[in-house]
Amino acid sequence: MEHVNLSRRTWLQSTGGIVGMASIGTLTPLSAALAATDKPAAAKSLPDYASWKNADSLIVHSANTIETKRSAFGNGLITPLDRLFVRNNISPPALSITEEPDAWELAVEGVKNPRSYTVAELKTMGVQALPMVLQCSGNGRAYFPEKPSGTQWTVGAAGCIVFTGVPVKDLIEASGGLAENVDYMTGTGGEEIPEGIDPNTIMLERSVPIAAIEDAILAWEINGEPLPLAHGGPLRLIIPGYTGVNNVKYIKQLAFTKDQSPANIQQNSYRLSPVGEQGGLISLRFGKCLLSHGLPIRVMKTIR
């Protein structure tokens, strides 16, 4: 139960930690030269929930798809938050949910003692800082000769950041352990579903193999700061090695289940297949060693 990584946490919050790693305002000569390669985008305003970001460093495709310009990554290991890409499948909840982040509640199911926990309670269970690459599965889509549908990301739908939160394994232990016959970890987002609409058609609910609990955390901080709404605050499920959609924002329920979610976004979206073939039931999972500026995988494409 005392899973506390205080030495790393202290380091991350020091001037030699995140601030030192990020080199926030610095561009190498190569990075500066790459500015000339950024394609000019039509002028679009940042949405209110991301208005604090650096507009000059971003390409606003839409209110829910915002890309980092290639020239804006800088030369630090950590991508600055005001330049980090944003991707939402549906509009985020109201900004007010981040005003009292410790009061946000998470329902936990599929454990021996199911119950709800506030973020304040989660913070008493343990803490871990997790450096990782966060990447949208569509990153590099603009370069595919097959021209798959969806936002035409170039290289900016990725970034290297540090999430901080409680390990999912510690939460399971605090909840009495897993129930029997569970094969998946299923996270449900807190986006509002309009009345009269079948939630399965639009809700953000993703299932990943239960083995993902080994590395997953429930995060309330990013780069040493409280998690903003634009990046899933007040609480986000983080699963290193899995594409961005599986890192469920505004998570309101974490369930350990026998079956995958019936939601459309699980059953029909974000599937990989050989080019020209219908999408199959292959979860989008990348290796743990990812490059934030990597080239697209040419032999596969996203079926949306």
How does this model look, in words?
There is one protein chain. This protein has 304 residues and is an alpha+beta fold. It has a single domain (3-303), classed as Oxidoreductase, molybdopterin-binding domain (Sulfite Oxidase, Chain A, domain 2), CATH 3.90.420. The chain is 12% helix and 26% strand. The protein has 7 helices and 16 strands. The chain has helices at 6-13, 18-22, 29-34, 119-122, 168-174, 199-202, 264-267; strands at residues 3-4, 58-62, 65-68, 86-87, 105-109, 115-118, 126-135, 158-167, 184-189, 205-209, 217-222, 225-226, 236-238, 251-257, 271-274, 300-303. The strands form 4 sheets. Strands 1, 7, 8, 11, 12 and 13 form a 6-stranded mixed β-sheet that branches. A hairpin with a 5-residue loop joins strand 5 and strand 6. The longest helix has 8 residues, at 6-13. The protein is globular. The termini are far apart. The model is unreliable at 1-37 and 281-304 (pLDDT under 50).
Task: Describe the secondary structure blueprint for this structure.
Elements: E1 3-4, H1 6-13, H2 18-22, H3 29-34, E2 58-62, E3 65-68, E4 86-87, E5 105-109, E6 115-118, H4 119-122, E7 126-135, E8 158-167, H5 168-174, E9 184-189, H6 199-202, E10 205-209, E11 217-222, E12 225-226, E13 236-238, E14 251-257, H7 264-267, E15 271-274, E16 300-303
Parallel strand pairs: 1-7, 5-14
Antiparallel strand pairs: 2-3, 3-4, 5-6, 7-8, 8-11, 9-10, 9-14, 11-12, 11-13, 15-16
